[in-house]
Amino acid sequence: MSEQEQLRSIRERIDAIDRELMRLISERASCAQTVAQVKRAAGSGDDYYRPEREAQVLRQVKEANPGPLEGETLARLFREIMSACLALEAPLRVAFLGPEGTYTHAAVLKHFGQDVRLAPMASLGEVFREVEAGGCSYGVVPIENSTEGVVNHTLDLFVQSPLFVCGEVLLRIHHHLLSSGPDVAHVQRVYAHQQALAQCRRWLDANLPHADRISLSSNAEAAQRASQETGSAAIAGDTAEALYGLRAVKRNIEDHPDNTTRFLVIGRQATIPPSGVDKTSVLVSTSNRPGALHRLLTPLAHNGVSMSRIESRPSRCVNWEYVYFLDIEGHSEDPDVRQALAGLRQEAQLFRILGAYPRAVL
Q1: Closest by Cα among 254, 145, 157 to 199
Q2: What is the average pLDDT across 24-49?
Q3: Within the chain, what is the greatest distance between any pair of CA atoms?
Q4: Burial 234-247 (b: 16+ CB within 10 A, else e)
Q5: I need a surface site. Which of 111, 185, 295, 348 has the fewest CB within 10 A?
Q6: In the predicted model, what is the mean pLDDT of residues 120-144?
Q7: Which residues of the chain does CATH 3.40.190.10 include?
Q8: What is residue 327's three-state secondary structure?
Q9: What is the pTM of this model?
Q10: What angle, 0 to 180 degrees and rounded to 10, lies between the N-to-C axes of helices 3-42 and 71-89?
């Protein structure tokens, strides 16, 4: 068989596979529509999005992946299929810190897929308020960065908000120097969010020591400004590059290649069933007395529950008293976790489970 005959045979096989894929995806979409009909008939029409179910599906895809595609790649494909099917049931409107083109925008798309309805907000406070008021089903907010630390404003908003944590997103942050100009040499000023400037400080010192560094409210705003000015560049990511018609004159200029930001998905959904691999976030406070924090955390150790994060913030009620944000491994319904939380509740002056939710899969 000649080379051309072999290629024609392979291409015919690919065409047949594509037709079968389309048939199966369409069948899956029809099942999603049937699910919506069943839920509406049962009066549970507001429960379309199931974070634990989606996490289980994506984990199963990665575990059962036969190759040659990477597990992450295959899971992203399924993420988009699920997003499109969910949109047939009930499109989700998700609030995030805008404008479009920010890393939070990218986190929304990573977690919910391309078929979500975007609702960019001017501030983190507006994200919380929009979800509280029911204008959006969910919100996505940054909580911590691997190099710059916790986002204090997000923690402070949780103290006063009735919302819950429904999921998390881990986004690897790759900063690019974006410009409409031809190369790095023409750049006279660099726009970026102050955190992006900090995360690229060494590269900027070495390569653009004389360029003005101008802090703006977001990297998306920086990209917008750079697209309108000659001699300007912005530090931003792939989403902003495509959205504002810029080109990356230098990619991956972050000082730490493993730079990652963790985002939380917030919503009004108080209870999410266990997915099998979960976290629980808790807000607690205790009196300011010797050994108080030790006694507060002792139930975790006694029940073999691992704490992955602790942050403190001023209570804003009494000087020098603090509230603590804890992330612990496991779901609040797991027996060991449930016992540990009961012990925490006894020791704490303030105790609130912010949410039990699936750990990030992608």
Answers
A1: 254
A2: 85
A3: 84
A4: bbbbebbbebbebe
A5: 185
A6: 96
A7: 92-173+260-266, 176-250
A8: strand
A9: 0.91
A10: 40
